[in-house]
Each structure stands twice: as C-alpha cells, then as structure tokens.
C-alpha cells in the first residue's frame, strides 16, 4: 500500500451521511440517506464551506447515499465544484481509495465514500496512533477529515475533523 504524495496537497475524506435501512429486496447500493442523513449532509457541507474547506475536485462513490452527501457539498460550494462519480469507490479496498487520490493532479481533492474503507484510508495516511487519538469511536457518518501534506516531514497530518 503506497501513501499518496502531492498533488493533491490537501485531502478531504467525507464519509456519507446516515443511510436508510434497506427495504425488503433493496440492494445496499440503492439505500438513500434517511431523514437525519439529509440534514447531516447539509450541516457538514455548510460547516466545510464556512471554514473555507473547498476542494478543487469531489470524487464520490456512485452509491445513492454517497450521491446524496456529495449533492449537499456541491450545493454548499456554490455549484462550481467539479464532481465525478466513480463506481470503484463502492465496496472496495483502501488501496483503491489511495490510488484514486494519488491519480489526481488537483491541489485539493475530496472523496465521499464508505466505511470501513474511509477509516482505513485515514489510518493509512496519518498512522494508527493519530487516528485512534483523533477518532477513538471510529469515523462517524457525515464526518469530514481534513488532511494536509507536511512537505518538511513528508507526512500527512489531520488538520481538522468536522462532524454534523
């Protein structure tokens, strides 16, 4: 597993907001955000925008709950944000998340994805001890990790973590 080096210089990892329980016969992929999830997606997107956390590119899983979360970010960022939906972010490995990040040339990239892969990506980027210290209860739904690259030490640091 290779940790990405810049670019990007800033990575945003956003776990999708709370999803509805699957209806009988419904695929996991097709679960939308529940009522609280819609509200939390809007709250976390607004908090990010208010703090000036604006990615150059948002890459989201194609799962319905991720699309709903990404849509909230898109609205909060003023509708000029480039958004890409990538099937490979659904039900995949941390290596795929990191490869997708590493392939980007933009200065700031946001991934909207799923646990446990989102938590594993954060842990890989900042290390186990820093991850456990920052998030002792794990990576919550609608949680946004803001990571910056420290070129002097060639490591990623968790700059901020926002929750709805």
TrEMBL record:
This is Histidine phosphatase family protein. Pfam families: His_Phos_1.
